Amino acid sequence: MNLSDTIIAPATAVGEGGIAVVRISGPRALDSLKKYFRPTTHNIKFSSQRLYHGTLVDQDEQHIDEIMAVYMSAPHTYTCDDVVEIHCHGSQQVVKSILNLYFDYGLRLADAGEFTYRAFANGRLDLSQAEAVARLIHAKTDSSRKLALSQVEGQLSRCIDDFTERLRKIQILVEAWIDFPEEELPREDLEHIERTVSSVIEEINTLIDTFNSGKVLADGASILLVGRPNAGKSSLLNKLLGEERAIVTDIPGTTRDLLEEGITLAGVPVRLVDTAGLRQSDDPVEMEGVKRAIDKIGHADLVLLLIDGSKEVDDQDIYSYRSCETAPTFVVETKSDLEKIADLSFVTHPLYSISIKTGEGLDELKEAIGEYLLGDYIAANESVMLSEQRHYDSLVSTLKNLQNVLIALCEGQSLEFIAFDIRDSLQYLGQISGETTTDSVLSGIFSQFCIGK
Fold this sequence. Notes:
This protein has about 450 residues and is α/β, with parallel strands linked by helices. Helix content is about 45%, strand content about 20%. It has three domains: about 5-125, 2-Layer Sandwich (Gyrase A, domain 2), CATH 3.30.1360.120; about 130-210 and about 385-435, tRNA modification GTPase MnmE domain 2 (Four Helix Bundle (Hemerythrin (Met), subunit A)); about 220-380, Rossmann fold (3-Layer(aba) Sandwich). Helix 5 (about 140-150) crosses helix 8, helix 6 packs antiparallel against helix 7 and helix 6 (about 155-180) runs antiparallel to helix 15 (about 415-435). The chain is flat.
């Protein structure tokens, strides 16, 4: 990306609407506005952060649209460059005409994520904040919005900065003593290094422990409904969705393929997956459905194993149970409104009883699902949370190097080894903030953004 170019892109989504916004950023932003904007009030002097009404015209002074325009002067803008926004009618033809007008004037269409990349390159955001901008745009629930917004506002960044500052002070201390090999590091300095590193390790472990809940909040969870035929899987799916999405009959084997639907459950975007009944069958189509269901079990965030409580447990129930033994599983005893016949004393997973017909037990099941998926978040929803795999991997690597520092201190190893591990720790922390991130990683991150952001 050439950061000296003046770039342009629509900032609003493609489609018709009341208003569309076209954003311009770069050194020619204000000149670009003045070139084709005819304000209602003549001879105005543009002030920053003020809206102006007028008409946008083309090279022949033909009207393109009646608009509101705002000029924002650097560095107090999203990109820290001069920015202009053109608020026009939400017609895609109007937006296209405005873009073509400024392409002819020499402006360049922004690359994916280029506005946010400029905010990062100009120091307004660090890399973790920039990534959170994309998370905020794609947030599907209020919980995921709050998590992304906390990271945009710098909650994670401040935590990483704190780790970095403390470790850099230790690095300076260690490297200063390396320059005096004839002298030993004083005992009080060794103890200070150990205390600081141990404290950072403890805080990083706490942060790492939030990753599963944070990822579920940001990306959603996959919940698999399994069990023998006619255990109530499709009925439960329909009940949770609030609509008749899956076909429900008394005929075993009605559901033969995976049926996937999205809902919000306990504030989490959830993919509910209804599966074929788990049983042995001579029907090749049904057996393919069973195979797909079993394959999915190992990848689900949570499995709901349904067992009909009004019938005796049979080989199909045992087969289903064994298929889920190593997966995170809730056993759901269905048809609690009927006489209980099933003996579920063999169950070691959490067990819940429900009735699709009366709704009994459904609220308790939903609450249990929420607590399982968001345990860390519910316990401390104001704390910093991880949601990016990249951040998690970097912190795990940081942790390993800091643990090596403690080992080196314990064994009385050379200060050079300690300094080496601290430098590596800072390198990994820098990958989160963007200080040490490679260009290829940066390109991969910003390529996932939309053009106008």
